[in-house]
Design goal:
Pfam families: Aldedh (PF00171), MaoC_dehydratas (PF01575). This is MaoC-like domain-containing protein. GO terms for molecular function: oxidoreductase activity, acting on the aldehyde or oxo group of donors, NAD or NADP as acceptor. It is a single chain. By secondary structure, this protein is of the alpha/beta class. The chain has three domains: 60-258 and 484-516, Aldehyde Dehydrogenase, Chain A, domain 1, CATH 3.40.605; 261-469, Aldehyde Dehydrogenase, Chain A, domain 2 (3-Layer(aba) Sandwich), CATH 3.40.309; 524-673, Hotdog Thioesterase (Thiol Ester Dehydrase, Chain A, Roll), CATH 3.10.129.10. Helices cover 32% and strands 25% of the residues. The protein contains 20 helices and 28 strands. The strands form seven sheets. A seven-stranded mixed sheet has the order 15-16-17-14-13-18-19, with helices on both faces. Strands 23, 24, 25, 26, 27 and 28 form a six-stranded antiparallel sheet that branches. Strand 9 (178-181), helix 6 (187-200) and strand 10 (208-210) form a beta-alpha-beta unit. It is globular.
Length: 674
């Protein structure tokens, strides 16, 4: 029997009084124990706040992103050991890959997004600046900085690795330390993964801590700079959310709860279509993956009334082919529930559903096992119920059996399907299998407010689609109502949960200094050599080049029109152009002005500018006619390191006419050598 340790204030701590035994889901044999009622929580909080937090906040977002990438690669090198340890949780190798590889992949996505979408700085700018004064010398914008407390992560038993890593990735990227509290039933896998992270030496001291067992009174010592992120049951979330200290001190609380997710067969997806076959495959997969122990698993199956019998037959046929048993055997396709207590809970909830629905597949008292003992292991078969009258039913819309249990129900039309979806009172995800765009739009408008994610799939997307039950780090994971009312992941949105958004106001120079991003109206540095001749490391924000003027002639306009083929009437027909309320007569092409601008500011000799990689936020603000002149102001707006050889420079470019009125504005991106 293994002792599963906690990691508190930099020390590994053995289980002690109050330790709980952990049994194998396969054999029922006790394999480990975890928990220590004497764990001192205040030193843990102090260690995170005073050691881990400052160390993380010294790093830029890019530094933290690089750290996440190294950590993910390290875990990937050792994932086989996590697979081996995970079998006793009841999952198959395929289940472990979802958990372990999914967690590592999520960390890699956040590492990439941190480098691409966040600055190499300590302040994240949220949105563009706002002009608050008439002359542009009083400005405002929103910034985000990391909370200066500790994030307490309370995770569910079903994904001991992914559940930890999907919270840690955005938390660490934000610059906040975390205390991880996994569910005791599977904490031996979480502890092994956590130990790999500590042993790697990649994270600074105090960045992460681990509690294997109860949190004691830790929540009573949190304040407004701390955060709590929870995944699990609605009942547990309610108890945690109602903590008086969390309420009194406005401690951030994010909850992702189990919900009655549904899948809808579109009325166009009749038996015999590719969509019908896809629907049956997806439902069967969601019922048996992790033995149905997924917060996103399909619990309610909605099909047109005419296709109920055919769907039951098709699903039953596929479920009958599923081999249940010892997950260590390659021939096993579905393993066990996590524990005997969980098995008892699932059977109790299934019986409750059975008071309103007929069980049409799966008998928990009679099913075949592959190389396992039904009495000692936590095994149940997939169970499919049919509720003939879902409008009158209560339990099928209120009760979740957290295992391989789902209920099929008929619907009359799309509006009726939407009303059935809403009866779940908030869910993480609903899937709709359809090729009909009108059905998809109707579903999005009618059911979107009740779901954190809507997953549409059909023959066009089925080869690339990741599946109903796969939360992706790029997209929001969470949902309203029963699903907890919170969000996780969602790309950089997930990082914002661990940062404070603050409105800052002041002069352009002050805001430039705060955000490390130059803005018009701030001081310009124009007494240096052409900025295109200066290396990335030498450039300062606000370095500006003001070009000479160039007159735009009618011959320029006509030559550009015939050379490019853009003979739009506003450039070629004086009378037609004057009839257009936007133009005083024939005008220059906008892209002609951009080409002339490049000719005005480009320094042609070889130098540190390696490539022009993009142009953002282009606006044409006033027309330019033949005889008008233009000049360019080119200013260094921001700098972002990309690798050891070069960095990205973002230039603010403004074109003005002979009256110094702006005619065009955009941002130019170049890669510059160090």
């Amino acid at each position: 029997m293994r002792d599963i340790q906690s990691f508190a204030a930099g020390q590994w701590i053995n289980p002690g009084a109050g330790a709980r035994e952990i049994a194998s889901a396969i054999t029922g044999e006790v394999i480990a124990r975890a928990g220590n009622d004497a764990l001192e929580v205040q030193p843990m909080l102090a260690y995170g706040r005073n050691v881990g937090g400052p160390a993380l906040r010294k790093l830029t977002f890019h530094d933290r992103a690089k750290m996440l990438k190294k950590l993910a690669l390290h875990l990937n090198d050792h994932k086989q050991s996590l697979y081996a340890l995970s079998f006793d949780t009841g999952g198959t190798l395929a289940d472990h890959r979802i958990d372990v590889d999914g967690g590592i992949g999520t960390m890699q996505v956040y590492a990439g997004k941190g480098r691409r979408e966040m600055p190499d700085d300590h302040v994240y700018l949220d949105g563009p600046p706002e002009q608050l004064g008439r002359s542009g010398q009083f400005m405002g914008r929103h910034i985000c900085t990391p909370l200066q407390g500790v994030a307490v992560h309370i995770n569910a038993f079903n994904f001991p690795v992914w559940g930890m890593l999907e919270k840690l990735a955005p938390t660490l990227l934000a610059g906040m330390p975390a205390i991880v509290k996994p569910a005791t039933a599977t904490c031996q896998v979480t502890e092994a993964c956590f130990r790999l992270m500590i042993q790697s030496g990649i994270l600074p001291d105090g960045a992460i801590q681990l509690v294997t067992g109860g949190l004691a009174d830790m929540l009573d010592h949190l304040d407004c700079q701390d955060a709590v992120s929870f995944t699990g049951s609605a009942d547990t979330a309610l108890k945690l959310r109602g903590n008086p200290v969390l309420l009194e001190r406005s401690v951030r609380f994010a909850s992702e709860q189990d919900s009655l997710n549904a899948s809808v067969l579109g009325s166009d997806a009749a038996p015999g279509t590719l969509e019908f076959d896809l629907f049956v495959r997806e439902v069967q997969r969601e019922m048996i993956t992790k033995a149905g122990q997924k917060c996103t698993a399909i619990r309610r199956i909605m099909v047109p009334q005419a296709h109920v019998d055919t769907t039951i037959a098709a699903l039953s046929e596929r479920l009958a082919k599923v081999t249940i048993g010892d997950p260590r055997l390659e021939t096993t396709k579905m393993g066990a529930l996590v524990s005997q207590s969980q098995r008892n809970d699932v059977l109790e909830k299934a019986a409750l559903i059975g008071t309103e629905a007929e069980r049409v597949f799966g008998d928990p008292e009679s099913f075949t096992l592959n190389g396992a003992d039904r009495h000692n292991g936590a095994f149940v078969p997939p169970m499919l119920f049919h509720c003939a009258d879902p409008d009158a039913a209560h339990y099928v819309h209120e009760t979740e059996a957290f295992g391989p249990v789902a209920t099929i129900m008929p619907y009359r039309d799309t509006d009726h399907a939407i009303s059935l979806l809403r009866k779940g009172k908030g869910a993480l995800v609903a899937s709709v299998i359809t090729c009909d765009g009108d059905i998809a739009r109707q579903m999005a408008i009618g059911a979107g407010a009740f779901h954190g994610r809507l997953y549409f799939n059909n023959r066009d997307s089925m080869e690339e689609a990741t599946g109903h039950g796969a939360p992706l780090p790029h997209m929001v994971h969470g949902g309203p109502g029963r699903a907890g009312g919170g969000e996780e992941l969602g790309g950089i949105r997930g990082v914002m949960h661990y940062m404070q958004r603050t409105a800052v106001q002041g002069s352009p120079d002050i805001l430039t200094a705060i955000g490390k991003q130059w803005m018009p109206g701030a001081t310009e540095i124009s007494d240096r050599a052409h900025p295109f001749t200066r290396n990335f490391s030498d450039l300062d924000l606000g370095e500006t080049f003001n070009s000479a003027r160039r007159v735009v002639s009618l011959d320029d306009i006509e030559t550009f029109a015939h050379f490019t083929g853009d003979t739009f009437y506003a450039h070629m027909d004086e009378e037609a152009a004057k009839a257009n309320p936007f133009f005083p007569g024939r005008v220059a092409h906008g892209y002609l002005l951009l080409s002339f601008a490049a000719g005005l500011f480009v320094q042609p000799d070889p130098g540190p500018v390696l490539a022009n990689t993009g142009l953002d936020s282009l606006r044409f603000m006033a027309p330019v006619q033949a005889g008008d002149s233009i000049k360019v102001r080119l200013s260094v707006k921001s700098k972002t390191s990309r690798n050891d050889d070069y960095g990205e420079v973002r230039w603010h470019v403004t074109l003005t006419n002979q009256e110094n009125a702006a005619v065009a504005e955009y941002e130019l991106l170049t890669m510059n050598a160090y």
